[in-house]
Structure prediction request, 259 residues.
Amino acid sequence: MSEKLPLSLVLITCNAASRLRDVLASVPFASEIILVDSGSTDETAAIAAEFGAQVVHHPWAGFGPQKAHAVSLASNDWVLCLDADEALSPRLATSIQRAFSKGLPDYPVYRFARCNVFMGRPLKHGEGYPDYNTRLFRKDAARWSDDIVHEHVLSDLPPRTLEGDLLHYSADDLKAYLDKQNRYTSLAAERAMARGESAPLARMLLSPVTRFLKFWLVRGGWQDGLPGFVHIAIGCQNSFMKYVKLRELRRQAGLSDQE
Prediction:
């Protein structure tokens, strides 16, 4: 059994039962687990109870605010923030434990590479890798942004990098993954609308093309085979749909975009 560290594992969930057990099992050394749930109707709460997690019900407030609320509930000064479809690789788990091996870490903010596992394959090229994410930090040194989508950790200090991958199991079920992407593009369009962005036809049409060229050719996404192609193609579709939805929001508001 792993030695418990003065570290709180923090997650937000909603119907996360399909992956939650693997996520929690990958962090056996956390002395506290805080799980903020926004209305699960599956076995999320029961699985959390197996691991001794504290489950707090909180209405959905957007990704950034929801994660900030979860961090505020942690009793430890140090928090590790994971999504409900992410797990630590053994190498990353070892790196985190090593950082605490002589007491508390000597630096307050850490990041690590995030690797998408898509259609059963880790994607090591193209879009999204190494995709460094700051997820381990002392609460007085960093915080989550207020973004309702594409949230990120803010800090005045540059993060140090730990070895190992954060494994993101992004598509156990392709239909569910596409449904999630549909929700994300709607949120992204709403955020762009709030910022006063426009959606001219040229941007709507060229954005997915430039995205494909960047990730498939320049960054070598072709090396990830069919899963890599599908992942990048969906990303291109997302880029297109964000601007389509933004254009529709602007039309509904009586605004027009230059053709």
